[in-house]
Amino acid sequence: MPLTDVPNRSAFLRACGLACALVAVPASAQDLKPPPAATAVAPAVVSSQAVPVPGDPHAVVDRIRAALAKQDSQNRLHVLVGDDPITPPGVSGAPAADARSRTRPKAPSSQRSTAVTAVRSTAWSYAGPNGPETWGRLQTDFGTCSSGQRQAPIDIDTRQTLQGPAEPLQLTYGSGGGSVVHTGHAIEVDVSDPHTLTVRGSTYRLQQLRFHHPAEVRIDGKTHAMAVHLVHRNDQGQTAVLVVLLEPGDVHPEIHKLWTHMPLEVKDRVPLPDGLLNPKALLPADARYFQFMGSLSAPPCTEGVLWLVMKQAVAISPEQLRLYAQLFPMNARPVQALNGRVVREGM
User: Fold this and answer.
1) Concatenated DSSP letters for 83-109?
2) Radius of gyration of the chain (CA)
3) Which of 55, 158, 216, 315 is the 20 to 30 Å CA partner of 27?
4) Phi/psi zone of residue 61: left (φ > 0), alpha (ψ -120 to 50 degrees), beta?
5) d(CA 279, CA 21)
6) At 190, phi and psi to the nearest 5?
7) What is the DSSP-derived secondary structure letter of residue 252?
8) Is residue 185 among the annotated active site residues?
9) If 0-12 CB within 10 Å is exposed, 13-18 middle and 19+ buried, where does residue 327 land?
10) Which of 101, 99, 103 is nearest to 46 (CA)?
């Protein structure tokens, strides 16, 4: 419709200002006529506050024409010239708060996503919506969890392992201290005294013990009740994980000492008395092991980790097993594809 038909035309022109006055308004209704769907709509209401109209008058008319053709579901017409809305004096429109909300700039997308990422990065779990199948999508630096080709754990097929001479593990484990901590994902023991493992020409220092229920690594498809991972690192920052499998049987004296200092809640940390921890007491009598290259078995799933899995399982009592299972009914990552990797038998 032409501007001559706009309700309260004089008020509209006063709001539009000098720019509208300078433009020759077409006599024909064709130039400013809204599309057919809009002809039955109630008279438009223009919202926000009056401001001077800058810019080219002809460009102003073009914008008004476009605005006349676009009305929202509440029959409220929003005329924008440049970045500012105009409202004729005496014409009611949306509340000031509503107008401000329509023009308030949104935060950059990078800022909006940061908070979500921060929440997700702390929410990975072993089951549910943030379980292992989603780890690679939870945070950018977790991508290897889904794209990596040497992921852990694996199912060791003894029919396919390389057999032959291999070096024995050189362990210098003694007594020391540390602390038991509930991470929310596992019970771990942070080690404070030097205990070392030497293999493949490199010496690794024991950093922590981490318990899993059930065991993550399988052998010929068999799943063991639990496992303890002895996590080591060398001076180059490389990681070696020595795995001891646990099966129901007699009470394990070393685990009994650790469970005596069991934390009560997430992030709870209980110091161990000096000299209480003896990692060597966790190891089986049989020193034979499997060896393969893998990754961390929890986010960020970093690859290049040397895995050493003891062949012989160690006994843990049903009561000890039940105590851990009450805290962690399941904290094991599913087995991952071998992708052509070689598993070697040691000793």
Assistant:
1) TEE---TT---S-HHHHHHHHSPPPPH
2) 35
3) 55
4) alpha
5) 90
6) -85, 130
7) -
8) yes
9) middle
10) 99
Q: pTM above the 0.85 mark?
A: no
Cα dihedral sign for 88, 91, 92, 93?
Answer: negative
Q: How far apart are CA 347 and CA 290, in angstroms?
A: 9
pLDDT at 181 over 70: yes
The DSSP letter of residue 51 is -
| Catalytic-labelled residue, pool 58, 78, 185, 229 | 185
Q: Examine the pLDDT at 23 and tell me if it is beyond 80.
A: no
Name the pLDDT band for 122 (thresholds 50, 70, 90).
low
Task: For residues 54 and 27, give the distance between their C-alpha atoms in angstroms, rounded to a whole number.
Answer: 24
Tell me which of 26-35, 182-191, 284-293 is least confident. Answer: 26-35
Residue in the structure block whose two tokens are 């308030």: 104
Residue reference for tokens 């009592």: 317
- Confidence bin at 252 (pLDDT 50/70/90): very high
Q: What is the DSSP secondary structure assignment for residue 134, as one 8-state letter?
A: G
State the CB neighbour count (10 A cutoff) for residue 200. 12
The residue type found at 163 is: Q
CB burial class (10 A; 0-12, 13-18, 19+) of residue 342?
exposed
Q: Tokens in use for 195? A: 């205990």
Q: Note whether 335 and 218 are within 8 A (CB).
A: yes
Percent of residues, the chain, with pLDDT higher than 70:
65
pLDDT at 69: 56
Do residues 4 and 25 touch, judged by C-beta distance below 8 A?
yes
Q: What is the DSSP string of 174-232?
A: --B-EEEEE-SS-EEEEE-S--EEEETTEEEEEEEEEEESS-S-EETTBPPSEEEEEEE
State residue 166's pLDDT score: 81
Confidence at 282, pLDDT banded by 50, 70, 90: very high
Phi/psi of residue 16, nearest 5 degrees: -65, -35
> Which spans in the chain are helix H?
9-16, 18-22, 57-68, 96-103, 109-121, 135-138, 144-147, 253-259, 318-327
